[in-house]
Amino acid sequence: MIVFLSGNVEIIITGFIVTDKCTRLKKITYTMELDFITQNAIIYVLMAWVVIFVTAKALKAERFGFTIKPYSLTYKNYKVQSALTRLLGRTRRGIRVFADVSVIAGFLMMGFAFWFLLQNITNFFAQPSEFAELTVLIPGVTLTSASAILYFLLSIPIVLVIHEGAHGIVATLEKIKIKTGGFAIFIAMFAGFVEPDEEEFDKAKKISRLRVIGAGATSNVLFAFALGAILLTNPLFAIILPEPFLGWFYESPEGVLVLSVIEGGGAEKAGMQTNDIITKINDVGIVSPMDFQKVELSPGDTVDVTILRDGQQIIIPVTIMASPDDPERGLVGIMRDNNMAFKPVYNFIEWNNPQLSMFLLWLWMISFFIGIINMLPLPILDGGKFIQTIIDKKMSEKSVNGTMMAIYAFTFIIFGLNIGLSYYKSGWFTI
To answer: How many CB atoms lie within 10 A of CB 428?
Structure first.
C-alpha cells in the first residue's frame, strides 16, 4: 500500500510513503518536535522494533495467529469472512452502491494521479516555484520529527483498516471467499491485507473483480472527504487547501506581519519597521508565512518588498542578506509572525487542541493520497491489478504481459522522475 503528499495540497505514499517536502507541514511540525528524538530517530525506531519483537516472543504471540521474524511481525485472522458477512447483512444496499461507485472512482483516481505526476514534471521546467518535491518517507530515516512519526503511526492503522475492510466487504458482497485478513509490520513499514481465494477471484465476473479492487482506494478517499468537510472549520486545514477551495472556505489575511527587523540586515537598512505587513515580494503574493517558500532569495540580490504601513501601500527595495546558518540561503532580514491567519468561513467548531488538529490533518492527507496513489498502475498497487483485469482475456496472455510491462515502465519512469528531480533540486530532505 502506498501514500503520497503533493504540492500546494502537499502530498504523502505508505506501506511505503512518498511525500512532498511539505514545507508548510514541516514548519508546524518542527514547533512540536523533541530534539533528542529528531536527531536520533532511526535509533529510537530500531529500539522500538526490538521491544516489539522481544515482547511478541516473550508472550508467545504465535499462539494467537502471529508470525514473528527478526524483520517482521505478521498477523492473520481466518475468521474475517464471518465478521464481514454479519456486517454486510445490515448494509447490503449501501455496499452495493459503494461497489459500483468504486469502479468509476478507480478510473478517476488513476487519472488524477497521472495528471499530478505529469503536471509536476512540467512545473519543474516551466514553473519551478510550483514544483512539489517528493521523497521516500521512512520513519526514522526521512521521517525524523517525533511528532510527525507519532501522527504517522496513529494514522496508518486507521487508514489500513478502512482500506482493507472495503476490499473484504465488497469481495463478500460478490460472493468471493476471503481466506485471511490481517496486518504486517516490517520494522518501520506497515501493511494491511485481505486475502481472497485466488481461484474464486479469478473465476468471478470482471465487473466483480473491478469492484473489489477499486473499493479500497475509494473508501480511503471517501473517508478523507468526510474528514475534510469537518476540517474546513479548522484554520490549520488552510495550509494544504489549494485554490479555488481556499478562497471559498477561508478569509485570507492581508499578508504576513513583521514582528521585528534584524539589526544590520537588509530589511532594516531599507527602512522596514515592526508591525509592517508584507503583501508581496517582487511579483509573488505573500498571504501566509508559507508563501516565502515560493520566492528565490539569493544573498546579494535586491527584491521589491510591498508592505502595508498604517493602511498605505509602500514598495521597498531590500538587499537580501545571507543566513547565519547557511551562507548560500538568502533572508529578507525580519522576524515574522508564523501563525496561520486564515479564518474559516464556517467556524462553528472550536479547535483548541493543536495536537488533535495536526493528527487529523495527517490522517486526512494519508487517507486521501493513499487512495489516489494506490490506483497508479504499478505491480504492488491496486492500479496494476485494476488495469490487468480490464485487458485480461481481450488479448493473448503474452500480449497482456507485454502491455502491462509497458504500462508499468511508463508509470515507474514518471514516478521516478518526480523523485529524481526533487533530489536534483534540493537533495534528500526529512520531515
So the answer is: 10
Measured distance between the N- and C-terminal CA atoms of the chain, rounded to whole angstroms: 20
Sign of the CA dihedral with 375 first, then 377, 379, and 385 last: positive
Q: What are the distances in angstroms from CA 45 to CA 40, 66, 89, 190, 321?
A: 9, 21, 42, 13, 39
Cα gap 237→188, rounded to integer Å: 27
C-alpha cell at 241: 487547501
The single-letter DSSP state of residue 280 is E
Number of Cβ atoms within 10 Å of the Cβ of 413? 12
The total number of residues shown for the chain amounts to 431
- pTM score of the predicted model: 0.79
- List, in order of start, the domains of the chain with CATH numbers: 2-239+355-426 (no CATH), 253-341 (2.30.42.10)
pLDDT digits (tens, 9 = 90+) for 231-263: 999 988 988 888 888 889 998 888 888 999 988
What is the Cα–Cα distance from 317 to 329, expressed in whole angstroms? 19
pLDDT digits 0-9 by tens, 116-128: 999 999 999 998 8
Number of Cβ atoms within 10 Å of the Cβ of 263:
7
3-state secondary structure of 385: helix
Q: How far is CA 341 from CA 250, 281, 321, 346, in A?
A: 10, 19, 27, 15
